[in-house]
Amino acid sequence: MKDISIQTVKFFESVLSVSVDGILIVDESQDVIVVNDAFCAPFGCVHGDLLETNLYVWLQRVDASLVQRWGRLISEVYLKGRCSNVEIAIPTKTGVEYFNVTASLLKQVQEQTVNVIISIWHNITALKQTEAALRQERDTLEVRVARRTAELAKANESLMIEIAQRKEMEKQITRSLDEKVELLKEVHHRVKNNMQIICSLLMLQSSYIEDDKYKDMFRDSLNRIRSMALLHEKLCQSPDLANINIQAYILGLTNTIFSAYKVSNSVITLELDVDDIPFNIDTAMSCGLILTELISNSLRHAFPDNRQGTLKIALHRHVNGNFKLTVKDDGIGIPQGFDIREPNSLGLHLAVSMVENKFNGQIELKNNDGTEFCIIFKEILPQ
């Protein structure tokens, strides 16, 4: 140490006093030249305890294993001629503290040749404690994850079993529903066939009637039965057994009635303006019976002596969830003062009664350039 001037030592001290890391400078013989407060603090020593003390002797007192580790670090610095570092754990008064020690060879300071080892002792105890805490948290988390994974696997297994059971139940329900659909279609088909048989019997019976009045009565009854039979026919052909397409139903119904009265479209033109509305069975059936009466009444009375004309039927959605049904012809019209609530025919009486009682709706007769029935109603809700 005698080869290093006091001036150089003071230079070291002035530089190292501002460092927050522990700094230790030793000469070739490992005698301590300069040490700062940050280095002494963890060991509870002062400068005087270390200055002009051989570092190996001091390290031996602190922990014998440190001598060998420091020796390897210094050897690596001399052999490689560059900075080297090592992690060192040192027991102190407050417990084990960890340092990242970086050492390098210093050969010249302020134009003076020196041969010293300058080492920076960066305290990484807090970092090591954080790493240890993180490792513990990681291990704890891994245990929790493994436990939770096992629970989820078990829950998933139970869920898969439940899903399989539900799928089997769904298959059984689907099979049951398919069977019921087929059964309902068969019921509608048989009802339709039975009604057609009734129609055939009535037609045979009507052939023995000579009075036109009674023939008309039979024909009206036939049309009513046909309107119901047509509904069952449409239902057994429809994929939706709960609702019926009223547009297709009215088209088939009007064609059936025109055919029953042997009316050609070249004589009476039929104009349909019907929205594509799905009605339930009760609503469609009631609409069909009302239309049967109104259309039959128009074909019988509005166009006498093969008079040509037009019959218009319209059905649209109306305000407040209502529907508006209109049946209008440009025939001779109904006599003035005719009261639709005191009709002289069963058919018109049935139509008015169904509108006001079953639909709880409104029916209005307009006698202007023909006859027009305007009906406002709501869909009949299932009981």
UniProtKB/TrEMBL annotation:
It comes from Candidatus Magnetobacterium casense. Residues 124-186 form a coiled coil. Pfam families: HATPase_c (PF02518), HisKA_2 (PF07568), PAS_9 (PF13426). This is PAS domain-containing protein. InterPro entries: HATPase_dom (IPR003594), PAS (IPR000014), Sig_transdc_His_kin_sub2_dim/P (IPR011495). PANTHER family: SENSOR HISTIDINE KINASE, SENSOR HISTIDINE KINASE PDTAS. Residues 10-75 form the PAS domain. Residues 282-381 form the Histidine kinase/HSP90-like ATPase domain. It comes from the Bacteria. Keywords: Coiled coil. SMART domains: HATPase_c, PAS.
